[in-house]
DNA sequence: CAACAGTTTCAGTAACGACTGTAACTTATG
DNA sequence: CATAAGTTACAGTCGTTACTGAAACTGTTG
C-alpha cells in the first residue's frame, strides 16, 4: 500500500507555489515557473513539450519559450528515445546548487559598484563613508560564500562519491 | 587640496548603476533605485524630496512613491530641522545588512515549498527524489546562514562597540 | 522523394506597472 | 484665521512583457 498520492488539484496548487517562488526570486515568468514545478513532480519524470503544455494549461508555443528559458538556465535537460522524434524534457540532476550559487554571486556583485564609487569619491573621504559601509558588508559576504560552497561540495562528495 | 571630485556626469552614471543593480536584484523600480543611489553620494547627505527629484530628473510625485518604498524597506530615514517644514531624507546608517539578510531568508524560504512537496508525495517515495535534492540544499543553506550572520554581528560589535 | 510529427518563429494582443501632472490635503507660521 | 510650502492622492498615459494562434521550418519515416 503506497497511499493515495496527491490529487491533481493538490499537484496544481503546489506547482503554482513553485512558480510563484521563482517568479519572485528569479524573475521567471509564470509559464516557465509552472513547467519547472511540473517537472519536479510529474510521473514519469520525462515529459514532452505537448504533455507539459496540457498539464499546466498553456499553449505549445509558450512551452517552447519556457523550455528555452529553463534549458538556458540549466534547470532542465533534453532527452530522446530510440525510434521517437519527440524530445522528452526532465529536471536536471541538481539545478539548485548552480542556480543558488549564481544568485549569491549576483548578490555580492554590488561589490564592483561600491568599489567604483569609492574610486570616484576617494576611498578615505568623509563623503564616501556611506558607500564604505556597503562595501565592507559585501566584501565580507564575498569572502564568506566561497568557503561556504566548499563545505557544500565536500558534503556532497562525502554522500555521493 | 582634496582633489577635483567626480563630475556630475560621473555621479549620474554611478547612480544609474546602483539603480540597475537594485532593479535586477531587489525588483526596485528605476526611480526608487536612483533616489537610493543619489542618497549614497549626495552632498550634503540629507536631501529634500524636491532636491532629489531635481537631481535625478523625476517628478515630485514620483519621489513621494519612491521615498515611501525606500522608507518601508528601511533604506532611508526621514529627518527634520527646527524652524523648517521640509522633511530631509538621508540614507539609513546601515541598510545593507538588514536588506541582505532579508534576501537570503527569502532565498531559503523555498524550504517551505519543498517541505510541503515531500509531504504531498511521501518523503521517501522514489517520485519525491527530485524534490528531496532541492530540500537538502535549501535545508543546509538555511543552517549556514544563521551562523554566518552571527559572525558578521560579532565582527561589527568588535569594530564599533 | 513524399508525407508527416513535432518544433520554432513571428506578428498581434492583452494586461500590467511605472511615471507624470493636477488637484486636494496637511500643517506650521504670522 | 489666512497664507504658503510641502506632501499626498488620483486619473490618465506610455512603455514593456507575457502569451496566443497561425504559418514556416526541420528532420525522420516509409
TrEMBL record, chains A, B:
<keyword id="KW-0238">DNA-binding</keyword>
<dbReference type="InterPro" id="IPR052362">
    <property type="entry name" value="HTH-GbsR_regulator"/>
</dbReference>
<keyword id="KW-0805">Transcription regulation</keyword>
<protein>
    <submittedName>
        <fullName>Transcriptional regulator</fullName>
    </submittedName>
</protein>
<keyword id="KW-0804">Transcription</keyword>
<dbReference type="InterPro" id="IPR036390">
    <property type="entry name" value="WH_DNA-bd_sf"/>
</dbReference>
<dbReference type="InterPro" id="IPR036388">
    <property type="entry name" value="WH-like_DNA-bd_sf"/>
</dbReference>
